[in-house]
Amino acid sequence: MKNLIKLFKYLKSYTIYALLAVIFMFVEVLAGLYIPYLMARIIDDALPSGDLILLRNTALIMILMAFGTILAGLVNNYCAQYISQYATANLRLDLFKKIQGLSFINVDKFKTGRLITSSTNDILQIQNFFMFLFRAIIRGPIMLVGGLILAIKTSVELSAIYIIIIPLLIIGISIIMTKALPLFTKVQEKVDALNNTVLENVNSPRVIKSFVSMSYENKRFAEKNEDYRKTSTQANKTIAYAMPIITIIINLGIAGILYLSAGLIENGILVTDGLADAGIIIAFFNYTMQILMGLLMLAMMLIFVSRAEASAKRINEIIEEEVDLTNSSNPIKDFKLTGDIEFRNVDFSYTQDGNNVLNDISFKVKRGETIGIIGSTGSGKSSLVQLIPRLYDVRSGEILLDGYNIKRLDIKSLRGQISMATQKPILFSGTIKSNILQGNQDATKEELESSANNAASIDFIDNLDDRFDAEVQKKGNNFSGGQKQRLSLARAFIKNPAILILDDTTSALDANSEEIVKKNIKELGKRTTTLIISQKVSTIMDADKILVMDNYGSLDGFDHHYKLLEKSKVYKEIYNSQFGVGGVENE
Ligand SMILES: Nc1ncnc2c1ncn2[C@@H]1O[C@H](COP(=O)(O)OP(=O)(O)OP(=O)(O)O)[C@@H](O)[C@H]1O
Predict the structure, then answer these.
(1) Which range scores top for mean pLDDT: 123-132, 259-268, 505-514, 577-586?
(2) d(CA 281, CA 258)
(3) Which residues fall within 8 angstroms of residue 378, CB to CB, at 6 or more apart?
(4) What interface predicted TM-score (ipTM) does this complex get?
(5) Position in ligand 1 atom list of the atom nearest CA 549
(6) Which CATH superfamily is domain 337-417+499-578 in?
(7) CATH of domain 426-496
(8) Which residue's alpha carbon is nearest to atom 7 within ligand 1?
(9) Contact in structure between 157 and 264 (CB atoms under 8 Å)
(10) Is domain 2-319 given the CATH code 3.40.309.10 in the classification?
(11) Where are the domains of the chain?
(12) Is the N end or the C end of the chain the one with fewer CB atoms within 10 Å?
């Protein structure tokens, strides 16, 4: 329950609604309990004596009570709906903000499917719980306790039946609950797995189609689906056993009451003027039903609480997750980077206990320089540049920008002054304009045009009917790889950053576009430090310096093209593989 209690803070803003819900629930239940008493009065007093005034008055009160129950129920329902909807909307928003702030390492830990299930399914469980809480929290106990008091008041002798049926019902329900509840946690985990598979598939339709791996993916999904179905059926089946068991116990109770009544009438106890007290027996039946309903509600409450507790635990795990990449206690906020970069003995790993992906990297870059980064695949080039905007933190060593350790700089301001365009550019559904402006929402029309121009994308934009207002579909699926790269370059340029990182961003460009982009980067480079990762020597050989990574995540060289040809074995090998030993570019 402790996880659910933590979420009660979301109810605080709705105290008045909560109070109203509880008051009207109280009224509803009390009115409901009063009706059997009135019924007994009609049968036992009004009918035998033929007192029509008493009959009419009691019937009138019964009608009023019935309306009162409906009205109170409606108000209670409205308040419960209001609280549960608003409180969980706020919780969902907080969870979303938290997820947005998670670092890559945090996200990797939870997996995307889990984050989605928690934002949807788990929140829904909490919503159902809040709803039930304000619909039924005191209903069950009042029905149970009130019913018991009134039943005992009606007939102490008949009440003896409760000594058997109430413990029986409690034992039956407890057995079912202890079996069913762990299954509900499992069901949520199965939903996570389903979501993960769906996500992977909708994110990579081209790969799946081109490798004709639909049937493999279908099979994979079918397995997860079956897994979910089995667990879910098992959980619901266990709960379903509850109904017949409860019905049997209730029917046993009814038979028991009749049996006991017969004995009591025989012994002259439930008899007035030679006639059996039918009103008392009927009222007792009604109270017994109320008691059993109350017990059932408590059992339902247990189901809701346990399911919601499992979900609350999963939600709290995310909300309380320590973001491993946060601002220092007193971060420097007002700083304007000029572009000096220094790595000092940097080691890096993606996981806490994993092997180093980068080993003892040290180098210095002066503001305005253009640096090429080259190395074989998996050598750590992308990992290295991702450390500069603090997408990940170093394992040891430090990274200095303008002499400041980046951990001392405010993350938002730091990232605001660094642009990054990646090999697999991600575009968002919207327009060309909205995508480029993501780099700088305040950019003018001229800046928009010039950044598109610098990224060699103005020609193809001009060819579109709506130019900058042309539609971009999800992930930029209606554009070619090269066009997407150019748009993501434009997005990086428009930011006018102090540091520009291009991670193999020109790999899909034709030679002409690459030349234009290279020329414009050089222009930009006068006021921006530019890091260009490329597999092609021709793309980076003109850079002020080239950083060469070996296969083990260490630096093999950091110098000018010609110096590296003399000194770096790795660089020379890459150069020879692309240009031949004689220096003629291979086809
Ligand atoms: N998110 C991640 N989690 C765990 N390991 C990762 C992650 N990203 C990369 N790696 C590992 O880190 C190492 C370096 O990868 P990185 O992407 O930096 O290489 P790269 O030189 O940029 O490669 P490429 O030229 O193919 O893009 C690889 O061994 C890779 O498997």
Answers:
(1) 123-132
(2) 9
(3) 551
(4) 0.96
(5) 21
(6) P-loop containing nucleotide triphosphate hydrolases (3.40.50.300)
(7) 3.40.50.300
(8) 350
(9) yes
(10) no
(11) 2-319, 337-417+499-578, 426-496
(12) C
